[in-house]
């Protein structure tokens, strides 16, 4: 057990200057009960999926001594991220004596974090929220964020709210239970911030994969701390702007315009990180065609992400026509908004509506590789 952990505190403007505490460290989970003394609470509800419950629920319940603990589980897949699941969980919490003084604690990946975050934002008009992310992608991406969302039949993340967590407890030890593919997928979030904000970080991540050190817990801890620090710096210094096109997407959206389409074409085939990595390469090429990125840098980025195992081969369900059809819905003349890099290491993204002709050319290039 470690005696001290890296602690990050930050304020996020969308949450009325609420202080969000992030604890990062190997074996930091063993300090959970100590951190709970900072909250006035009557009980804690741990929300997790069935798989995570089998792996970690009893361990976490033993660590917590100062509060009654109640476990609430849901099905372990993206399909459970909906209002039906959220309502079921809220009904259980109310039935088991939950109150406005209860704590909601997510234990799991991004799906669980979103469900728990949404429940905490609406039940009793807002409850204390703790995230204990057990996947690398959740540790780097969704857990520190304030966006809590559920899916509808028609729209991914179509329902949601802004709710900052009160505590995020990040322990690299959880990576031991993940597959190599899931760990590689999590690195997509790290390399995204590296491309946009820190050239040396690109080299560091590439070296971890070259030397097969990317699973080493000490290096993982460094990657987590660096990525979250870059993310928070961007949140604090580059606020969301609006112009005549609407919302100007920030660098956190890199790769997502095309990546989210790739993710839903063959649902479950690509991990989220893999889909975003494919999306980044295609969008980097679009930046090149618009006169920003040099083609040599685009190819280098592709090489790095390929060496990281992020560019998982696309199945036969992926076609240029299908991607174009989903990007440019026939029911709307509006072109999708995209965030593009001007250069690696420059977080000042360009936001524009994605021209059809250039997108088509970029897809043709990518499918020819």
Q: Count the helices. How many? A: 13
Radius of gyration, in Å, reads 20 Å
Spatial separation of the terminal alpha carbons:
48 Å
Order of helix and strand elements from N to C terminus:
EEHEHEHEHEHEEEHHHEEHHHHEEH
Spans with pLDDT under 50 lasting ≥5 residues? Answer: 241-248
CATH superfamily grouping of the largest domain:
Dehydroquinate synthase-like - alpha domain
Question: Helicity level, as a percent range?
Answer: 40-55%
CATH topology of the largest domain: Dehydroquinate synthase-like, alpha domain
Q: Number of domains in the coordinates?
A: 2
Structural class: alpha/beta
Largest sheet, in brief, is: 7 strands, mixed
Oligomer class: single chain
Strand order of the largest sheet: 1-2-9-6-5-3-4
Structural features, described:
This protein has helices at residues 32-36, 50-63, 83-95, 110-122, 136-142, 180-197, 199-210, 217-237, 256-265, 272-289, 295-307, 320-327, 356-367, and strands at 6-12, 18-24, 44-49, 69-74, 103-108, 128-133, 147-150, 159-162, 167-170, 241-243, 246-248, 337-340, 350-353. By secondary structure, it is an alpha/beta fold. It has 2 domains: 6-175, Rossmann fold; 186-367, Up-down Bundle (Dehydroquinate synthase-like, alpha domain), CATH 1.20.1090.10. The chain has a 7-stranded mixed beta sheet, with helices on both faces. Helix 9 packs across helix 10 and helix 10 (272-289) runs antiparallel to helix 11 (295-307). The model is unreliable at 241-248 (pLDDT under 50).
How is this structure best summarized?
This protein has helices at residues 32-36, 50-63, 83-95, 110-122, 136-142, 180-197, 199-210, 217-237, 256-265, 272-289, 295-307, 320-327, 356-367, and strands at 6-12, 18-24, 44-49, 69-74, 103-108, 128-133, 147-150, 159-162, 167-170, 241-243, 246-248, 337-340, 350-353.
């Amino acid at each position: 057990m470690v005696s001290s952990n890296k602690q990050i505190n930050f304020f996020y403007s969308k949450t009325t200057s609420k202080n969000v505490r992030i604890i990062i460290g190997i074996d930091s989970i063993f300090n959970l009960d100590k951190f709970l003394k900072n909250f006035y609470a009557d009980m804690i509800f741990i929300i997790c999926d069935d798989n995570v419950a089998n792996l970690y629920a009893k361990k976490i319940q033993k660590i917590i001594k100062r509060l009654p603990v109640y476990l609430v589980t849901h099905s372990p897949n993206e399909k459970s991220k909906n209002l039906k699941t959220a309502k079921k969980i809220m009904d259980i919490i109310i039935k088991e004596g939950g109150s406005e003084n209860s704590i909601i604690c997510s234990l799991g990946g991004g799906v669980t974090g979103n469900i728990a975050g949404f429940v905490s934002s609406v039940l009793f008009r807002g409850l204390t929220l703790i995230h204990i992310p057990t996947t690398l992608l959740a540790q780097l991406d969704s857990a520190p964020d304030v966006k809590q969302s559920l899916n509808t039949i028609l729209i991914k993340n179509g329902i949601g709210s802004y709710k900052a967590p009160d505590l995020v407890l990040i322990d690299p030890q959880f990576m031991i239970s993940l597959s190599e593919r899931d760990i590689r997928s999590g690195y997509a979030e790290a390399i995204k911030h590296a491309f946009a904000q820190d050239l040396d970080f690109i080299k560091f991540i590439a070296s971890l994969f070259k030397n097969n050190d990317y699973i080493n817990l000490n290096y993982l801890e460094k990657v987590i701390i660096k990525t979250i620090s870059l993310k928070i710096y961007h949140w604090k210094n580059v606020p969301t702007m609006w112009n005549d096109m609407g919302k100007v997407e920030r660098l956190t959206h890199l790769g997502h315009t095309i990546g989210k389409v790739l993710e839903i074409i063959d649902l479950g085939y690509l991990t989220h990180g893999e889909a975003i990595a494919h999306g980044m390469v295609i969008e980097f090429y679009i930046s090149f065609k618009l006169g920003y990125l040099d083609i040599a840098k685009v190819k280098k980025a592709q090489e790095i992400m390929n060496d990281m195992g992020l560019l998982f081969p696309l199945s036969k369900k992926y076609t240029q026509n299908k991607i174009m059809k989903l990007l440019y819905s026939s029911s709307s003349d509006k072109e999708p908004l995209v965030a593009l890099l001007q250069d690696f290491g420059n977080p000042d993204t360009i936001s524009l509506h994605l021209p059809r002709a250039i997108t088509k050319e970029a897809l043709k290039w990518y499918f020819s590789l």
